[in-house]
């Protein structure tokens, strides 16, 4: 028995080896064409949102290099797998046959270890250099803007150093001057969040108990999304705000305005704010209806007077009808104190007491009380 198989095998083996060599050439041709098509297609696709920081262009180039390096690998591996499945499949009558004995191929093993190792090491080094450059402090470190970013369920608040001294200026929207390095200090009041501005290509977790940082230099004026990129609870998807990149003088004007309108009011001492307001000069009296629109209230609440249809939070025409100013005030600054039937606590941003001044909250309360009266 053994002798017959010994004599039969070499004959069929030689045929197969010759066969295999002949079919490797077209296989290589197909793999090269498929790789080139794959690379061309992946470079043509616009993967990213607009690029708005100096760091973004380096990261996009890194991504393109990763594509050029990984598409041929993917094509090579899948072609060899598909080819082998087809070429060496079991044919009728071969059910009981064993494959040819293999004792390994040292040269092949060295090649398939060394090439991927070189590739991985080069890509890791390149990625490290890009990361290192992006984190580099600017030459003029003094001119760097520091912004404290605080996440909480489910909103972001941005804090700036007050140009007039005193307590930090708080804002629900991120404002940044163009062409100036910004260093973010990211914090959270409750659970993990992740501060991400896709147009800057950079994000970092907000971790309870510690400060995390990153820096970017915005280079393009415009309004971009600020996103929470860490599942943080029921309202995670609503944790979206805007980053406004403006000129240096627009930014200074905005910051001075924020400082004098008294964003960062202490809700427990509303009386102190009135003084701040007059000291700020000829600031016009806040308009409740405009504040309702500007703070995105209509995105979640229905209010006939404002023509909004939001359904995430309670219908204000119903729940605020006939309510006292004190109740409305509490619902704005401490939204979880009383939750309307059928709604979840923790969805409404709890930071309006910080980002709106006392007079703005007063105007909003007055507006809501009047708008829901009828
Ligand atoms: Cu905060 Cu997701």
Textual characterization of the structure:
45% of the residues lie in helices and 16% in strands. It is an alpha+beta fold and 374 residues long. The protein folds into three domains: 15-86 and 108-135; 141-263, Cupredoxins -  blue copper proteins (Immunoglobulin-like, Sandwich); 297-371, Orthogonal Bundle (Cytochrome Bc1 Complex, Chain D, domain 2). It has a five-stranded mixed beta sheet. Strands 4-10-9-6-7 form a five-stranded mixed beta sheet, with helices on one face. It has a two-stranded antiparallel ribbon with strand order 11-12. Strand 11 and strand 12 form a beta hairpin. The longest helix has 43 residues, at 2-44. The relative contact order is 0.09. Bound molecules: dinuclear copper ion (CUA).
Percent of residues in β-strands: 15-25%
CATH topology term of the largest domain:
Immunoglobulin-like
The CATH superfamily of the largest domain appears as Cupredoxins -  blue copper proteins
| Number of helical segments with 4 or more residues | 10
Query: What's the CATH architecture name of the largest domain?
Result: Sandwich
Q: What would you report as the Rg, rounded to the nearest angstrom?
A: 31 Å
Biggest sheet statistics: 5 strands, mixed
Class per helix and strand makeup: alpha+beta
- Counted up, domains total 3
Write down the overall mean pLDDT. 82
Strand order of the largest sheet: 3-2-1-5-8
Assign a percent range to the helix content.
40-55%
Which ligands occur here? dinuclear copper ion
Oligomer: single chain
Q: Count of DSSP E strands?
A: 12
Shape field:
elongated
